[in-house]
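User: Batch of two.

Assistant: Item 1 of 2:
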Amino acid sequence: MNHVMDEIEARAHRQLHRMRELGERMAAIRVRETSTDGAITAEVDGNGALCDLVFTTAVSRMSPRDFEQLLVATAAQAAARAFAERAELINAFNAEGADLPR
C-alpha cells in the first residue's frame, strides 16, 4: 500500500512541476512587432497585453487616422504571434502529458 501512495505522490509532484514550468514559460512570452514602415514597434506579453510601444519620428507625419490604424494593426500582429507561442506551449504540454505514465 505504501508503494501505491508513494507513486501517487510522485505523480502529483511531477504534474505540479510541469504546471509551474508551463506557467513560467507562458509568463515569459514577449513578442515585439514593428510596422512595415518601421514607425511603430509594439511589444506584448503572452496574454496580448501591451507592454511597450516605440515610435519613430515618422509618426509625426501621419494623420491621426493613419496613426491609429497602424498602431492597432501592429499591436494586433504582435498579439497574434504571442497567442501562437502560447498555443504551442499548451499543445506541447498536453502532448507530453498524454505520454506520461498514469
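Item 2 of 2:
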Amino acid sequence: MPTTVHEFAWPDRVVVGTVGIPGQRTFYLQVQTGKQIVSISLEKQQAAQLAEKMDEILDQLITIDGNPFHVPASTPIELVDNDDLEPVQEQFRAGVMSLGWDPTTAQIVIEAYPLEEVDPDDDGFLADDDDADPSEVLRVRMPVGTARAFTKRTREVVGAGRPICVICGQPIDADGHTCTFPEN
C-alpha cells in the first residue's frame, strides 16, 4: 500500500495546541494551508522535545560562520500565533518524529509518522510479508521565523498544565491534591 503524504511546504499556520482541561489534555500538532488542515495527536513530551530540539537547530545555525540565512535569535512578534486550534479531526497519533534542516529552502522540516499498533501476540520481529512503509506521514516545512514562533507557543502550551506542588513535586489536580511528601 502506498504511503499517504500530507505535505505542507509553506504552511499558513503550524501550531501545537490542546483540547481538554489540564491533567486531561490531548496535545495536537495542527498544520494549515488555505482550507487544508491536518491535526495529529502527540504526547506532551513529544511537543516539549520538538520545541527544544528545534530551538537547538536554530541556535546552531546562528553560530555558523558565513551563514547566508537570517535566523532570528528571538521570536518575531508579528509571527506569534495565540489563536485556538481549528476544529480538530485527528489524522493519526504521532509515533516516530524527525526534525531537520533543509538548506536549499532555508526551512526547518518536521516529519511525523503514525504510532504503530503492536500486536500482543507478535514476537517483535517483522515477517517478510509485513509492509515496512508507513501508512501515512506528515511533512511540514517552515521558515526560521515561523519556527521560532512555533517553539515559543509550544513551550507556553506545554507549561500551561496543572500547577506543581512545592512540597512533593507532583501535579495538583483541579479537584484537590493530597501531598505524598513523606513526613519526618
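The chain has one domain: 4-117+133-159.
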